[in-house]
Automatic annotation (TrEMBL):
<comment type="function">
    <text>Catalyzes the phosphorylation of the hydroxyl group of 4-methyl-5-beta-hydroxyethylthiazole (THZ).</text>
</comment>
<keyword id="KW-0808">Transferase</keyword>
<dbReference type="InterPro" id="IPR000417">
    <property type="entry name" value="Hyethyz_kinase"/>
</dbReference>
<feature type="binding site">
    <location>
        <position position="122"/>
    </location>
    <ligand>
        <name>ATP</name>
    </ligand>
</feature>
<feature type="binding site">
    <location>
        <position position="195"/>
    </location>
    <ligand>
        <name>substrate</name>
    </ligand>
</feature>
<keyword id="KW-0418">Kinase</keyword>
<keyword id="KW-0460">Magnesium</keyword>
<dbReference type="InterPro" id="IPR029056">
    <property type="entry name" value="Ribokinase-like"/>
</dbReference>
<comment type="similarity">
    <text>Belongs to the Thz kinase family.</text>
</comment>
<keyword id="KW-0547">Nucleotide-binding</keyword>
<keyword id="KW-0784">Thiamine biosynthesis</keyword>
<protein>
    <recommendedName>
        <fullName>Hydroxyethylthiazole kinase</fullName>
        <ecNumber>2.7.1.50</ecNumber>
    </recommendedName>
</protein>
<keyword id="KW-0067">ATP-binding</keyword>
<dbReference type="GO" id="GO:0009229">
    <property type="term" value="P:thiamine diphosphate biosynthetic process"/>
</dbReference>
<dbReference type="GO" id="GO:0000287">
    <property type="term" value="F:magnesium ion binding"/>
</dbReference>
<dbReference type="Pfam" id="PF02110">
    <property type="entry name" value="HK"/>
</dbReference>
<feature type="binding site">
    <location>
        <position position="46"/>
    </location>
    <ligand>
        <name>substrate</name>
    </ligand>
</feature>
Length: 264
């Protein structure tokens, strides 16, 4: 499975390779996720116009499709970029933001899964469950379910789609349908900052670009989120300073931090 050493080795690779990560992402997090990518050592680009999707997905090392603030035109762009990325064999991360809240979101995820074959699906518990069961409702973008309740459906989703499934929440689980990796850190302020899940997805994209094994990549990215959260916790006085210190923690993270803080 993975160890602190695996996470450190992949972080080193990421910094050496500085992969270009193409994000089609929501208005809420464009700035914060671009900064997270820069802080970790990757190269971000946010682009969604259908006319430039073939070109941009044609030069990227990973594609992140985040459906947080969708429109019909964005879906068109996502499908063009996703097909190009899939043809090129680069990793595709789907963040099903708000799947289970509206049928537009859930149906768009199914379209992306069918036409683009994402390599990793990273969402909260009810988003992941909504991709398997139409009974599950998401509260806007917030989960209504626990990661434990989502785990069996996540395994099914993984086996049905061929994508690694990464569930975030008070407990993080990453599964390929057979193996399950759990990140045991618990950072209470993390869900009080909008878009930390979107940040997890974009960092998953950066890791997936440099790491062949998508289960390992997804787990390393969630591990890095957790380690940064642990570093920030004693410094933050609330969500505002948490967000600021989080970028600094990503930027300065070294292998000692990882072995000291990561709980697997
Ligand atoms: N209740 C919680 N307690 C501690 N950590 C949490 C909790 N919920 C989520 N997290 C952590 O916060 C990060 C984001 O996960 P979350 O489940 O909030 O994603 P999300 O719902 O997709 O977020 P967003 O849509 O705002 O981007 C993860 O690293 C996860 O471990
Ligand atoms: C709050 C919110 N609404 C749509 S996307 C987003 C960012 C967190 O998912
Ligand atoms: Mg989310």
């Amino acid at each position: 499975m993975i160890t602190a050493q695996t996470v450190s080795d992949n972080l080193r690779k990421l910094k050496d390779q500085a992969p270009l990560v193409h994000n089609i992402t929501n208005y809420v997090v464009m700035n914060s996720t671009a900064n997270a990518l820069l802080s970790i050592g990757a190269s971000p680009v946010m682009a969604h116009a259908p006319r430039e999707m073939e070109d941009m997905a044609g030069i990227a090392s990973a594609l992140v499709l985040n459906i947080g603030t969708l429109s019909e035109e964005w879906v068109e762009g996502m499908l063009i970029a996703g097909k190009k990325a899939s043809e090129r064999g680069i990793p595709i991360i789907l963040d099903p933001v708000g799947a289970g809240a509206t049928s537009f979101r859930t149906e768009t995820c199914h379209q992306i899964i069918k036409h683009c074959q994402p390599t990793i699906i990273r969402g909260n518990a009810s988003e992941v469950m909504a991709l398997i069961s139409s009974e599950v409702q998401t509260k806007g973008v917030d989960s209504t379910q626990s990661s434990d309740d989502a785990l069996e459906m996540a395994k099914t989703l993984s086996l049905e789609t061929g994508a690694v499934v990464s569930i975030s929440g008070p407990k993080d689980y990453i599964t390929d349908g057979n193996k399950v990796i759990r990140i045991k850190n618990h950072i209470p302020l993390m869900p009080k900052v909008t878009g930390m899940g979107c940040t997890a997805s974009t960092l998953t994209g950066a890791m997936a670009a440099v790491c062949e094994n998508q289960l390992e990549a997804a787990a390393c990215a969630m591990g890095i989120m957790a380690v940064a959260g642990e570093i920030v916790t004693p410094k933050a006085q609330g969500p505002g300073s948490f967000q600021m210190h989080f970028l600094d923690a990503l930027y300065n993270m070294n292998s000692e931090d990882i072995s000291k803080h990561l709980k697997l």
